[in-house]
Amino acid sequence: MSSCIRCGKELTYNEIGAHKKFINRGSTQFFCKDCLARKLGVTVQDIDRKIEEFKQQGCTLFV
Ligand SMILES: [Zn+2]
Q1: How far is the CA of 18 from the centre of ligand 1 (A)?
Q2: For 13-21, which contacts have Cβ atoms below 8 Å and span 24 or more sequence positions?
Q3: Percent of the chain having pLDDT more than 70?
Q4: Cα 42 to ligand 1 centre (Å)
Q5: Long-range pairs for 20-28: beta carbons < 8 A, 24 or more residues apart
Q6: N or C: lower Cβ tally within 10 Å for the chain?
Q7: Strand locations in the chain (E)
Q8: Distance (Å) from CA 32 to ligand 1 centroid
Q9: How far, in Å, is the centroid of ligand 1 from the Cα of 20?
Q10: How far is the CA of 43 from the centre of ligand 1 (A)?
Q11: Confidence of residue 23 (pLDDT cuts 50, 70, 90)
Q12: 3 CA distance to ligand 1 centroid (A)?
């Protein structure tokens, strides 16, 4: 399992998906949801909401 390149927290499948979706699909290193939210200037709830939307669209980056 990968860990966040910023804080070292272990990453979930959806966090990796979120990083790919929001930052760069070709990334091999990832931020956790908290670090991603901070970087994008949004809240973790915003990220969660987006993940839900992508899931409903059938995006395979999320479970
Ligand atoms: Zn982190």
Answers
A1: 12
A2: 13/62, 13/63, 14/51, 14/61, 14/62, 14/63, 16/61, 17/51, 17/54, 17/59, 17/61, 17/62, 18/47, 18/50, 18/51, 18/61, 18/62, 20/61, 21/50, 21/54, 21/59, 21/61
A3: 98
A4: 14
A5: 20/61, 21/50, 21/54, 21/59, 21/61, 22/47, 22/50
A6: N
A7: none
A8: 4
A9: 15
A10: 14
A11: very high
A12: 8
